[in-house]
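Exercise: predict the fold of this chain.
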Amino acid sequence: MASAVSMPAPVCLIENIPSKGLLVNQTALQILSGITQPVVVVAIVGMYRTGKSYLMNKLAGKKNGFALGSTIQSHTKGIWMWCLPHPRNPNQTLVLLDTEGLGDVEKGDEKNDCWIFALAVLLSSTLVYNSMNTMSQDALSKLHFVSELTKLIKVKGDSNGNEEEEEGEDTQFVRYFPNFIWTVRDFSLLLKRDGKNITEDGYLEFALELKKGLNKDAFNYNLPRQCIRNFFPSRKCFTFVAPVSGGDIVRLEELPEAALDLVFLQQSQAFYNYVFEKSEVKKLKGGQQVTGRMFASLAKTYVETINSGLVPCLENAVISMATIENQEAVKEAMEHYQSEMNGLVHFPIGVEELSELHGKCEAEAITVFMKRSFKDDDQQHQNVLQDKVQQRYKELCKKNETVSEEACNKLLEALTAEMETKVSNGFYSTPGGYKLYTEDQEKVVREYQGRPDKGVKVRKDLPCEIKAYLSNMRRMCDVGNKMCEAY
C-alpha cells in the first residue's frame, strides 16, 4: 500500500529570506519524500491580510495551524505546507500550500510577489485566489501577476520540432496549469445583474468580461481578464459574508463555530465540499500522477532554477524529476532483487534452481521499477537495472561455486576420515587390504552421492578424487605396494 502522512502542523516548504532569496526547506522535502501516494495540491494566493490562512486551516479541519495573525503585519512568509490524508479519497494525500501575502508593504518587492505567485501556479492542481469585498477593477488589477506568467514560466525547453510548437502559447500553458477558484471574502453585494439573480460563477464571468476598444485603457483593463480566461478555462467562484462583526475578527481562530455567521458557515461548507470533491491529483503531461516524492523534486527544481536567474521550465523540471525518480526506481528495484535472492537462495544450490530463482526475482524487480519509473521511454534506466541484476547474478553464481566446492571438500574430508585413520594405522597394508580398501571406497562414494546440498562442484570421478585425497596421507606410497602384495 502506498504510504501517506499526517502532519500535526504545517512546515515551511519554500522559505523567503531577503538576504538569500528562496530556499527549499529540507524538512519539508523529507516529509514529501515519504509520501508515495498521489497528491492533491491546493494552493492559496492573494493580497496580504485577506484571511487566506483561515480558509486553509478550515480545509485542514483545524481551528489553527497556518498563522493568521491579527495585526497589519503579514505572518506567512514564503510558502507553507500541510500534508494530510485526503478527507474523501484514502488513496490520496492532500497538500495545502499557504503563500505569503502579495503586495506586502514591508516587503516592497514586486518581483518576489511574482515568483511566489508563479510557484503557486506551478506546484498546485487547484489554485485559490482570495480577495476582499468585490471583484472590482482594483481587485483585478492586483491580480496582474497572472499577466506575467508567460515571462516567468516556460512550457518547453529547447525546440524539439514537434507539433506542440504549432500550438498557441496559451494552449500549452493550459495543459499544465491548475484549476482556478476565486474566493471573495466579506462580500456584501447582491448577486444580481440587470435586475436578475446570477450565480457566483456568473458573477465571476461578468467580472472577466472584456472591454471593447484598442486604446491603452482597454488594453490594461482587459489584460488580466484575458489571461485568466485563457490560462484557467476551469474556474469557479465562492463568495463569503463576513464571519463576525466588529472587533471579533481579530479573534477569529479562537471563536467557536456557534459564534460565526450562519450564512458564512454555509458558504464555507460549500467551498470545502467543492475543493475536496473537484480538486484533482497533480498531474504532468500525459496524465502522469505526481506523488509526494515527485512533488518534492518539482519544488526543488523550480526554486533552484529561479535562484540561478533562469525561468522555470515545465519540460526541463519534468526531465530532471524523471531522472531522479528513475535512479531511485533502479535503486529500489535492485534492493528488492537482492533482498529476495538473499532470502530464497541457500548455498550451495543447483544451477537450475538458482537460475529459476534469479528469473523470478528479476521479473519482480522489473515490476518494482516499472511502478516507480517515469518517462523512461528509451529504457535507459531499465537497462541499467538489468545490467546490475546480471552482475549480481554472476556474483551469486561465483559464490555458489565457491561454497559448493568448500561443502564438497568438507563432506569428502568427513566421509574419508575413517579411511584416513585406517591408512595411518596400516589397516590396508595387511593381506586382503586392497579388497577392504575398495569396499570402503565404494561406501564413501555411495554416501557422498547420496548426500544432498553439494551444489555445482560435485565430484564426477569420485574414486580418483578419493585416491588423490588419500595419496597425501602418511605411508600412502607403502600402502600401494603392500596392498598389491596382499592382493
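Check your answer against the key: Residues 380-415 form the longest helix (36 residues).
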